[in-house]
Write a structure and sequence with these properties.
This is DUF4251 domain-containing protein. By secondary structure, the protein is α+β, with helices and mostly antiparallel strands. The chain has one helix and ten strands.
């Protein structure tokens, strides 16, 4: 009977030790995934070719708006910026009245493209002149890829988008 109790205690201790070793493996897997994502983000930032896709936005006049069903992106390249972002907010002079406004849709060669490494990520400052407006774009990217994009325009109030960066998608022809 005494050996039976010793065997049960031994099996219980063995099960507990196995459980702890598996938890450490899960933690190691999470850390490996995080390091892999950080390397991918660093590679995208260093190449200066990536796209930002927003999940939601926050303007000065509206509360948080979900953008998961609205197609949107802004592509960053050292020699070309293309934006297809929606705009919810107040416009100033130079904008058409009624349904002619199509959001923050512009493309052009950046006049300034500066990448700075910060304590918790990267900050990218870009200035682009569109057809009718001048855009000052600030993208703050955390090491894991989560990003905040702020666009300041001459003819609109500033707006902030929250999302992630990813590699550029090839355009379908």
């Amino acid at each position: 009977m005494k050996t039976y109790k010793i065997a049960i205690v031994f099996l219980l201790c063995f099960n507990v030790l196995i459980g702890f070793s598996q938890e450490q493996t899960r933690r190691q897997l999470r850390n490996e995934k995080r390091v892999e994502k950080q390397k991918e983000v660093e590679k995208l930032i260093n190449a200066k070719e990536f796209q930002f896709v927003a999940r939601n936005l926050n303007s000065q006049t509206f509360q948080m708006i979900d953008l998961s069903i609205i197609p949107n992106f802004i592509q960053f390249k050292p020699d070309f910026i293309k934006s297809e972002m929606p705009f919810f907010g107040r416009g100033f002079s130079g904008l058409g009245y009624g349904g002619s406004d199509t959001g923050l849709k512009f493309e052009g060669k950046p006049e300034k493209f500066i990448v700075k490494k910060k304590k918790k990520g990267y900050q990218i400052d870009v200035e682009v002149k569109g057809q009718q407006d001048f855009f000052n774009i600030t993208l703050s990217v955390l090491f894991e890829g989560s990003s905040t994009l702020t666009i300041i325009s001459n003819n609109r109030e500033s707006i902030s988008y929250f999302g992630e960066i990813s590699p550029l998608e090839e355009e379908k022809k």
